[in-house]
Structure formats: C-alpha cells, structure tokens
Write a structure and sequence with these properties.
With 354 residues, the protein is of the alpha+beta class. The chain has three domains: 83 residues, Winged helix-like DNA-binding domain superfamily/Winged helix DNA-binding domain (Arc Repressor Mutant, subunit A), CATH 1.10.10; 159 residues, Beta-Lactamase (2-Layer Sandwich), CATH 3.30.450.40; 87 residues, Enolase-like, domain 1 (2-Layer Sandwich). It contains 14 helices and ten strands. The strands form three sheets. Strands 7-3-10-9-8 form a five-stranded antiparallel beta sheet, with helices on both faces. A three-stranded antiparallel beta sheet has the order 4-5-6. Helix 2 crosses helix 5 and helix 7 runs antiparallel to helix 14. The radius of gyration is 26 Å and the shape is elongated. The N terminus and C terminus are likely disordered.
C-alpha cells in the first residue's frame, strides 16, 4: 500500500476520488472532458486524459469497449476507501429518528433484529443482513411457574440475554399458584446468574420437584447455547433496482439467499479477534469469492465481547456510496451493542465493541 501511495501524486488522487464519486452517483463512465470541468481540477482535458491513462495502466481504472469514459476497478475502489474517503456522520435528525425507533420497541431481540435490517436497508439504500448475537454461555435471569388448570403448569424461563422460553408441564400432583410462586422464588435465588452447567451442579440437594424444574431449565439453556439463530434480511429490492443487476436478478437472489456466501461472511465476522477493527469493507469478494465479484459489503460486529456478539452488514454493487454506508453500519452497530449490553442489566464490564 505504501508503494501505491507513492505512485499516486496528489493530482492523480484527486482525479481518482472525483471519478469514483461521480461514477457512484451516476452509474455512467466518466469522461476526461467532464473531469476537466470539475472546479477542483482546473486543468486541460489533455492533462486529465494523460493522468487517466496512467491510472488505467496501473489498474485503478478501466473502460467499457463502447465508451470513452472510465470507471473504477476493484483496486481503484480499494484505494479510494483506504486513502481518499472522508468519514461522514449521519445527521442529528437521522440519528434521533433511528434511536427513537429502537427505543420504542420492547427488550425483545427478534424485534431488534428485524428493525435493524429494515433501518440498515433504508438508510444505506442497500440490502441488509443481521445475525443475532451469539451467546457464549447464556445465563439464568428468572423463571415463573403459572397454574393453568389441574396439574398443567406453564413454565416461563427468562435469560439474561433477553430470550424468553415457555413450556407446558404436567405435574404428578397439582400445586396451587401460591405453592408454585414459592418454588419459583426459591429457584430464582438458587439459579441467579448461573450457566446451564452450573445449574446442574446445584440440583443434587434440591427436592425432587425442584430438581425436575432445574433439569428442564438447564436443558433449555443448552439448546440456546447450541443454536446460532436465523439471519434477518431486508432491502433486496434496493440492490435489484441498481442498473448493474437489472438483467441478473436470479444471481443476486442466490447470493442473498439463506445459507449463501453472505451468511458465511457474517459468521466469519464473529470469529475475528476482539481487537480487530469492527467495520470491514469487502470489495468484489477480494478475489476469494467469485460469486461476490460484482458486490461490495460493509460488515461489522456488535455486542459485548466475551458474552454475546452478533454481526450485521450492507450489500450493494461495487458502485456503493461507501462513506455513507460505513456511517450507517457503524451507527447501528454501536446502537445494538448498547442495547445488548442493557440486556445484562448493567452487570457486565463496559467492553462493548466500537
């Protein structure tokens, strides 16, 4: 990368930056004439043509056979996002609107995931994917035993991660609601903050009925620990409406489908070291994923390191408005990190992601 910086003079950097921004906005190859008329350049069309020829020779630009204009290559986009792109922030009004939408919802992960995908897709004008936080080991918060009729009881299990599980039980001997509430309060004290394995260690000295409830609770928690949850999607129509993909809707749908390469990349985000930069930009599959050669992705982790982390991202064409997309992804990621932290009741150390 140092060699690339040395190769590109300030004027070549300026030309590349203007060309990328113009092409992102218009989806039309950019001509030397239009560039020479840009107020920042103030040079002749001949000079611009020479500089564009240099950029094309070194792999930053290319041109369609039917056009005299140029467009960026993957290398050109990569140089742009790493060296020329300026950080932008969402407007205060937009940030407040997004925050209001989230805080209008209850402490419910499913609602957050659906809302996150919708907000990302709308704000970034792309397709959005959100993987729910994976709990490294879920922890018990509280349970309730509710009498329904006769020996049939409803068990409601609430975990610190905001998950709620319900199960109907048939008791050998019916208990009134007062007795069930007494058992619930006792088990809530015994199991408070424990993982599934730790709950099983507490079962031996308990009475038979309490042991049975504890076994059901630990089994339910094991199921939560072993599952990753669905990936929430929104905004596919935003990608299909781009001129690059009008004739390839089926291929776009396959890339965006459940279990496809995008899901794999979200999963890989979760395995990254905690100290890695949280926002990642992937351009054209980076030469490793041919099925993503026409797409760019902006991905991020969110959550609380060491406890529960998820991943989210926006997908679009190579001609993506990178600065705004990064801003949207970063803002929603930080917002979700704070919401996930709140699920733990403020008991965890403040190690939220960037």
């Amino acid at each position: 990368m140092v060699q690339e910086i040395d190769i590109l003079t300030p004027r070549r950097q300026l030309i590349l930056g203007i060309l990328v921004r113009d092409y992102v906005e218009t989806a039309m190859p950019v001509s030397s004439k239009s560039l020479s008329e840009h107020p920042e350049l103030r040079v002749s069309p001949a000079t611009v043509r020479n500089e564009m020829a240099y950029l094309e020779e070194h792999g930053y630009l290319t041109h369609p056979h039917t056009s005299a204009g140029r467009l960026p290559t993957e290398k050109g986009y990569r140089y742009f996002v790493e060296q020329l792109m300026h950080d932008i922030r969402l407007s205060a009004d937009e940030r407040r609107m997004i925050e209001h939408q989230f805080y209008q919802t209850q402490m419910d992960l499913n609602q957050w995931m659906r809302l996150s995908a919708a907000v990302l897709a709308h704000a970034a004008r792309g397709a959005a994917l959100v993987a729910p936080p994976r709990v490294h080991r879920c922890r018990f918060k509280h349970l309730e035993l509710i009498s329904t009729h006769g020996p049939v009881v409803l068990l409601i299990l609430v975990l610190q991660e905001g998950l709620i599980k319900q199960q109907m039980l048939t008791l050998q001997h019916s208990l009134n609601q007062e007795g069930l509430s007494r058992v619930s309060r006792w088990l809530n004290d015994v199991f408070a903050g424990l993982e599934a394995a730790e709950i099983r260690q507490q079962l031996t000295p308990l009475p038979t009925f309490e042991q049975e409830i504890g076994t059901l609770v630990s089994t339910s928690m094991d199921e939560v620990d072993s599952r990753s949850g669905p990936v929430y999607r929104d905004g596919l129509v935003n990608v299909l409406s781009q001129p690059e993909f009008v004739a390839s809707a089926q291929r776009v749908a396959q890339v965006f489908s459940d279990g496809g390469p995008l899901d794999v990349m979200l999963s890989e985000m979760l395995t990254m070291a905690a100290d890695r930069e949280s926002v990642q930009i992937v351009i054209g599959g980076e030469g490793q994923r041919n099925e993503l050669s026409d797409f760019s992705l902006v991905l991020s982790r969110y959550g609380v390191n060491g406890y529960a982390t998820g991943a989210l991202g926006v997908v679009g064409p190579l001609r993506m408005p990178y600065a705004r997309t990064v801003s949207v992804v970063r803002f929603v990621s930080r917002l979700l990190s704070n919401l996930v932290f709140d699920l733990y009741g403020g008991e965890l150390p403040p190690t939220t992601l960037e």
